Amino acid sequence: MLKRMNLxxxxxxxxxxxPQIENFNDLDPVSQTLWEQKTQYQRKExxxxxxxxxxxxxxxxxxxxICISVGYFKMTGDVRSFRITSFHGEEPLILKEFKILLExxxxxxxxxxxxxxxxxFDFPYxxxxxxxxxxxxxxKLNLFGKKPWEVPHLDTLELWKFGDYKTFTSLKLMAxxxxxxxxxxxxxxxxxRDVYYNEKDLDRIIEYCEKDTLTVAQIFLRLxxxxxxxxxxxxxx
Length: 237
Description:
By secondary structure, the protein is an alpha/beta fold. It is built from 9 helices and 6 strands. It has helices at 29-38, 40-43, 49-52, 91-105, 122-132, 156-161, 171-177, 192-197, 202-223; strands at 10-19, 63-76, 79-88, 112-115, 153-155, 234-236. It has a 6-stranded mixed sheet with strand order 5-4-1-2-3-6, with helices on both faces. It starts with 9 loop residues before the first strand and ends with a strand. The model has no long low-confidence stretch (mean pLDDT 95).
């Protein structure tokens, strides 16, 4: 099935998120209480709500998107290339630009979105943040009324499970076992909050996000039993 898919019809993506507000104590009292209630199960007795707040970017209700990186294949005869770009800046602008891309270039029935753990994280997170920012959800992210086989989403984590739903395999681990150069050669997801708020180095985060997007595409190639991309096949635009 995967081999029959046209690579040019797939948009690969990854997002990076941070807490909406840098520090827990700067949240209004209602938000602090709701954060405490939302994370009670995850925190148990190990962390206070304030200590746990550095992870707030994981939840769309308390986090925000600071970068969406996308990549797609371009085939010219037998020559392939993978073009990658990023949307960054203020969250409403990121979401609007991403929506325009979906509605102008990836809006046909055969177009698919692909991310690692995208069905559990990236796709719903983007949709929720669009609603919060009063942006209409584009067709490719609006699952209301769709049957499971009509959902235009691919997930490399789900593909790797082969029906085994009790396991989670990280992008880094999948890349390692499939012989793909690791994308985690600088920072990982747990560092993004500090790099953004403390180091204020958005460019470093964008580079990290683009590497993850490329890795998702590389994993998809390996799942099709095809050669991974060489550096000279990857184009930043």
